[in-house]
Design goal:
Blueprint lengths: L7 H8 L8 H5 L17 H16 L3 H13 L4 H10 L2 H8 L5 H9 L3 E3 L2 E2 L12 E4 L7 H8 L9 E4 L4 E4 L14 H8 L2
Antiparallel strand pairs: 1-2, 1-3, 3-5, 4-5
Helix pairs in contact: 3-9, 4-5, 5-9, 6-7
């Protein structure tokens, strides 16, 4: 199953954002990696800015190039704004929703829980992280997995994260994907228009 497995601290420093969760390296070295990271940086071209934004979103949601490109083309043919559609499709991925519910502390951890068959959709085990959820789908923790330390710890420190397009029942460890989120509800700092402009060249 293809996924990025390289160093996470360098990626966080490259974008100056905690892409894979809290990063000590980003706090200690808040400049890009490499021997020229602290030097003078020349002004980036328009293309470079657009490319960086696309790369950031890829790493943020844990997807690779071909998948991301295919997802963009799907978003482009849907009614509405292409950039909003793209983020909506990424948000409806099963691994992302598991992360949003707080079942996992990071999207990487969520992907692993799904792959290892700890997660159910409408009562059936689904082990495909990219599985696309539809409004009304119920996502839960498999009965045998409810006592897993990784899951219970993550839910304990969930910090009461609430998202209006999700409903979570902590007692039964099951949540509902109520609808596709609108752009303004997605908290990440993403300039999706830059990605649209990049693919429109």
């Amino acid at each position: 199953m293809a996924r990025y497995t390289g160093p996470t601290a360098k990626i966080a420093r490259r974008f100056s954002e905690p892409i894979f969760g809290p990063s000590k390296a980003l706090n200690k070295k808040n400049y890009p990696p490499g021997q020229h990271g602290r030097g003078r940086r020349k002004k980036q071209s328009e293309y470079a800015v657009q490319l960086m934004e696309k790369q950031k979103v890829k790493y943020l949601y844990g997807v690779l190039e071909k998948y991301f490109e295919n997802l963009f083309h799907k978003a482009a043919v849907l009614p509405g704004i292409t950039g909003d559609n793209l983020l909506g499709l990424l948000e409806s991925r099963l691994d992302n929703v598991v992360y949003r519910f707080g079942i996992a502390s990071t999207r990487r951890a969520a992907r692993q829980l799904v792959s290892h068959k700890h997660i159910t959709v409408n009562g059936e085990v689904v082990n495909i992280p990219s599985y696309k959820l539809r409004p009304g789908d119920q996502v839960g923790v498999r009965e045998k997995s409810k006592s897993l330390e990784a899951i219970t710890t993550s839910l304990t420190v969930r910090n009461s994260r609430q998202f209006s397009w999700l409903e979570w029942d902590g007692k039964d460890m099951v949540g509902k994907f109520t609808n596709m989120p609108s752009r303004e509800l997605i908290p990440e700092k993403i300039s999706e228009q830059l990605i649209v402009e990049l693919y429109s060249k």
